[in-house]
């Protein structure tokens, strides 16, 4: 069946490739319109801006490329009206007349304006797979982001949990998945991969804390395995964050809150208007820094401290070339109270915010450097090349079972991960005409190398007492994809793609040569998507695709017989719509299903990979964004999922920690000056903590609020979390553990990290 499915995809790609043959060249009597769209403030090009051209033969459309350029060909002579729209920018309309055979060039400048949902368009001509584009961009403008932990929840339907004092990557829940720390959700920032392969703590580990939230400019969300640009970990979906290209003004910000919380942020514009660095065209450069300290709400002070620094340059070197350079450094250190067993709180041994082992904690750091060169080539093509390097270090002390294995000294462990990441991605994108129809072809090529020193050791009060496993991992991913998008009619768009990934796994165990070795694996992932614009305000879509998440390199090398697959396949499909039932209401709805060949989790606490076996999920996502007045907005996300283990007996086939219902939403008052505020809720339902559902992770409902007042160059702000001061649990697990005085076999029950009690902080910002 998979071979037949693959043949259909290959046939579709072949037909699309043939359609771009020069045999379909335009007649010399037809005209062409080309141009550039830029931001009125920064002068930087605006990629992905939608354009509509109305004329004698009806309406056609396109979108700007990575350099802000656009092209509309195959046009009959006559008078036209061109309309350019971008969320957060004013609509620009211009009349023009084209003569037979003429090529006309123009430049449009779009001014930034207040958000108006009446002008939001639901179709995405440049990237139809980004059906959540309007939703995620609205959220970026409206939802308050106060820390790095607020970034991932910008993804509609995504909920997080923290269980290591704020210093470790969050646990992620999305589309009925407990993604652990990123096994089934692909994350990147400015093209830098965030997920870590073969990590000491968990496969796909995605730590976003090296990102300064005030620098984030946009988020692109892709649910499911339907987009060829994403490979490893892109099963439940992918999120692409990007930082600001330029600063409207420099910023200094100070925050002070409960639990001895302090935070300082500075953003400094390095190239004021009229100054240049590498060219005489539009350029921008800025520095950003962040320092955070808190003791948190636990009985044992957490002494959490984090420093972030970032420098970014973006410049137009010529009419055909742009360059982006970015460097950043992040370091963090903290103490942690860990997860606590319910019985220890119930019998009064510790308080809810206490600890069995208060010597947990750790440190981590990451340094990044990347360069992106974008070049316009002949024949309406764009070449984008990115090279990147990251140095990453991780050191974590944890104790989940307390005194189960070592009754005298305890079961504390130390996980370490030190790695160098080298990578390159290149894309060649070309737009051609098939008669009056646009065909966009994208070819991508990339590689990523992770060279890792990784270890799991025993420790007592942070003093190492022995080694469980240690070694060196070398893992390389070579990948290529071909993506074709053809507008079959004015309403119907076809997207077909094929991606190939090849992995090299090498592991050298420092203690046991029997567990050392090398393996290679490959995976081919076809995609097929259809989009139909029923009306200008209603788009229907049907999507399908194959994807995968990789296994830990250590498990791949040891399990040469494939008892644990190296690249377990995911098959996903969905049907849905993005539409506007009212002028100021944007709705995205999808019914989806996802099948995994094997759901793998690397258990960093034990140094092995655990298999849940085959799983099957289906569900529904609904996202609504409504503008009640010029300054008042409402939003709600509703996400339902039903997931089960395949082949397990009924009643023992629950997927541990997989949520079946989540919802977030709120009301936001947004004004450029004066008072702005937001009242938000989030809810995660009670769910099974084990396969038999004999232990349950408890759900919660929380209310948060944010307010700010802008006057002149000053902004005063306040944030309140958990307004109702409810007792709730963040990370929760069914864990076998032993406390002093208990039987040697231990007790299996719910262990949890308590959630934040009522918390408030204030801030002062100065713009200059």
UniProtKB/TrEMBL annotation:
InterPro entries: Beta-barrel_TonB, Beta-barrel_TonB_sf, CarboxyPept-like_regulatory, Plug_dom, Plug_dom_sf, TonB-dep_rcpt-like. This is TonB-dependent receptor. It is found in: Cell outer membrane. It is a multi-pass membrane protein. Coiled coil: none annotated. Residues 126-237 form the TonB-dependent receptor plug domain. Transmembrane segments: none annotated. Its main location: membrane. Residues 1-25 form the signal peptide. It comes from the Bacteria. Keywords: Cell outer membrane, Membrane, Receptor, Signal, TonB box, Transmembrane, Transmembrane beta strand, Transport. It comes from Hymenobacter canadensis. Pfam families: CarboxypepD_reg, Plug, TonB_dep_Rec_b-barrel. Residues 330-723 form the TonB-dependent receptor-like beta-barrel domain. Belongs to the TonB-dependent receptor family.
